[in-house]
Amino acid sequence: MNFQAIEHCGQTLWLLPDKAIYWPARHALLIADVHIGKAASYRALHQPVPRGTTEATLARLDALLAAYHCEQLIVLGDFLHARTARAPATLAKVQLWREQHQNLRIVLIRGNHDRNAGDPPASLDVDVMDEPWILQPFALQHEPLPHPTNPVLAGHVHPVFVLRGKARQRLLLPCFLIDEQVSLLPAFGEFTGGWEITPASTSQVYLAGAGRVWPL
Question: Three-state DSSP class for 44?
Answer without folding.
Answer: helix
